[in-house]
Amino acid sequence: MTRHCFTLQVDPRRLEEYRKAHAAVWPEMLEALRDAGWGHYTLHLREDGLLVGVVETDDLGRAQAAMEATDVNARWQAAMAGLFADLPDGRPDRALEVLPTIFDIDAQLAAAGRQGARP
């Protein structure tokens, strides 16, 4: 599994709506994400609207494509689109800015022959 980090920009005037929507994500959407391989998926929201997502998956492109093929994702993206700033095609899921990993403590500990994550 590889961990991926991405950003999006929520409209700062719509933060409460965004939080409310994510406090009770549709069960069908949760199952679709799980089935598409989105593991340990978390979202973090700063007060200026910066949204940071972290997901673990074997293949991010494949996981995105699997979600793209679901009806529930199309409905969810349509429901969420108005909460974001500056979406090129109106779909938040197509506007992710994936950030490269520049530091991984476990990888560096392993390279140094030391124990990684705490037991």
UniProtKB/TrEMBL annotation:
Classification via InterPro entries: Dimeric_a/b-barrel, Rham/fucose_mutarotase
Domain of life where this protein originates: Bacteria
SUPFAM superfamilies, A to Z: Dimeric alpha+beta barrel
UniProt-recorded name of the protein: L-rhamnose mutarotase
Coiled-coil residue spans: none
Organism: Kineococcus gynurae
Name of a matching Pfam family: rhaM
